[in-house]
Write a structure and sequence with these properties.
202 residues; mainly alpha; three-stranded mixed sheet; 3 strands; elongated; disordered C terminus
Length: 202
Amino acid sequence: MSRHPVQLNIERAARIPRIHVVIRLVLLLALGTLGCSSIYWFLYLALPAMVAAMVSQKGGPRYLADNAPKVVRVLRWFAGAYGYLWLLTNDLPTSEGSHVDLQIEIEGTPTVASSLLRLLTSLPALLLVWVLSLAAALAWLVAAAFVLATERMPAALADFLTLTLRVQFRMIAYHLSLVERYPSLKESLAAGPEGQQHLARG
């Protein structure tokens, strides 16, 4: 099977200071007060419609050439933010980049109809992301307890959180018509050492 067009690599922090758990908890509570679940559903419904509108105005090739690179830059920032919130890195993303490297090889020939159809075809992938995210929330709590006790996260927990992020961003790239390849848990599991880099620094 050919390489997936969406690759996620993370240089994980070898040591996570305990104070970072508190900082992340405050940030997550702040996000929770915004009603993030409602925002996610709004984005799920709105984004394919926005893509369809751009494709109808410019055509699929120009959407991929003009708009898709800007979308990818935004997704890279969010990937870095998630890596921080999920205890995988110690640094928030900046304009210079982050320790979370999201690469998306833009492909396909989106049309208005195919963009809108993603509202339906993305649903199984969304269900997979939802199930993984529930498990990731429990994994985060266990990881936070390990960090508070040892300032380290077990590799198995970090691997699972990385896997969840990989599937999530593959689903998002598909949903935005940036790629044609459907997100697959089996394919993400087969990624092997992808995303399992570790920083030697504390």
